[in-house]
Amino acid sequence: MFCNNPDAGLKAIIAMHSTVLGPAVGGARMRHYANEADAVRDVLRLSRTMTYKNALAGLNIGGGKAVILGDPKTDKTEVLFRAFGRAVDALGGRYITAEDVGTDVNDMEQIYLQTEFVTGVHQVHGGSGDPAPFTAYGTLQGLMATLQRRFGHEEVGQVSIAVQGLGHIGMELVKLLRERGAKLFVADLDPKLVDRAVNEYGAEAVKPDEIYDVAADVFAPCAMEGSIDAQTLERLKVKVVCGSANNQLASHAIGDELYRRGILYAPDYAVNAGGVMNVSLEIDGYNRERAMRRLIRSIYYNVGKIFDLSEREKISPQYAADRIAEARLGAIGKLKLPMGRTRPRLGHLRGEH
Ligand code: NAI
C-alpha cells in the first residue's frame, strides 16, 4: 500500500508479505532512498524476511514491513507519524507496525495516537518499549548456540569478536559480550560510538572498512544489510558469522560459500528475532518475564535445530532455516485457519475498550 499525504509530508509504503500465521507484523523503517524503486525493493525484501523470521520463531503472526521515505535526522514531525498511523489504521489490523532503523519509541507514541495497531509503544501505555535490548539479548543466545556447535563450548569469554555497527543493537551486544569477558574489536561510521565502546567496554577500535580483515573468532554484522558479498567474503578470517543485521548475505550463494569454507553462519533472521518476539507479546498482553523466558528458550534452540538440519541434509544453514520456516507456513497454511486467537486486540489489552 502506497501512502501519500503531501500535507503531512508523508510518503510511505506498507508491504504485507504473508498473513497465513496471523496479522503481518514488522517495523517501520525511516530512510532516505535514492528513488521510489529502491524503497519498494527494500520493503518487499524486508517483509519477506519478516514472514520467515516470525514463522521460524514459532510466532502466530505473519510478515510485513513499512518504509517511510525521508531522512530520520531532519524530516521527523508529529504530523508525519500521525498520518502514517492513520494509514496503518486503515488496514484494520492486518498490518501491525513497530520500531525499525530510523524510528524509535517516541515515534511509536505519535502513531499510537491514531491507531492501536502499533507495538513497541512505551511501557506506560502497557506496551513493551524499545525492542533493541531484546534483539541484542537474543543475538547473544544465538551466538552461544553457534559457538557450541563450532567450538564445542558456549563460553563467550573465550573468544574474540569483531562487531560491525554500534547502534541500538551493536552497542548493547558489546556491553553483554564485555560482561562475559569477550575480546572485542569494533567499527562504526560514527567515531563517537567507537569512542564509547573503547572507553566504556574496553573494545579495540578498527576502521569501518577494516573490520572484515580482523583475525577474530567471530564476525558479528550489526549494521546494514548485504555486509557479506563476494569481495568481503574473501577477506574474512573468522570461523563464525553471527550478528543482528537483517539480510546480512548479499545472496544465498554467499551462504553456500561460507558453508564450503567451514565458516559457520547463524542465519540472521533466526538470531535477530528477539525484538519481534518481544513486541509480539503485546498482542496477547505484555509481560516482561514471559518475554525473557520465550527468548532464552527459543533462539538458542532454533539456531541449534537449523544446524542439525544443515548437518543432516548437507545444506547450508540459511537454506535449512528457510526449510523449517516454509514447513511451518505450509502446514498451517493448509489448515486455512481464520485469524482466531491471533486476531489483534491490542487496544482491548491496553484497557481501551
Ligand atoms: P541503528 O541504526 O541504531 O545502528 C546501525 C549502526 O550501524 C549505526 O551506528 C551506523 O553508523 C552503523 N553503520 C552503518 N553502516 C556501517 C558500516 N558500513 N560500517 C560500520 N558501521 C556502520 O540500527 P539497529 O537498531 O542497531 O539495527 C542494526 C541492525 O539490526 C539492522 O540491520 C537492523 O535491521 C537489524 N535489526 C534490528 C532490530 C531492532 O530491534 N532494532 C531487530 C532485528 C534486526
Task: Describe the protein.
The protein has 13 helices and twelve strands. With 353 residues, the chain is α/β, with parallel strands linked by helices. The two termini are 28 Å apart. The protein is 45% helix and 14% strand. The chain folds into two domains: 2-49 and 63-118, 3-Layer(aba) Sandwich (Rossmann fold); 132-328, NAD(P)-binding Rossmann-like Domain (Rossmann fold, 3-Layer(aba) Sandwich), CATH 3.40.50.720. β4 (28-31), α1 and β5 form a beta-alpha-beta unit. The structure holds 1,4-dihydronicotinamide adenine dinucleotide (NAI). The site of 1,4-dihydronicotinamide adenine dinucleotide (NAI) has 25 residues, from α4 and α5. Residues 101, 131-132, 135, 164-170, 187-190, 193, 208, 222-224, 244-246, 272, 275 line the site of 1,4-dihydronicotinamide adenine dinucleotide.
Summarize the structure.
This protein is of the alpha/beta class and 353 residues long. The protein contains 13 helices and 12 strands. It has helices at residues 36-56, 78-90, 105-112, 132-151, 168-179, 191-201, 230-235, 252-260, 268-271, 274-280, 288-313, 317-335, 346-349; strands at 2-5, 10-18, 24-25, 28-31, 62-69, 95-96, 160-164, 183-187, 204-205, 218-221, 240-241, 264-265.
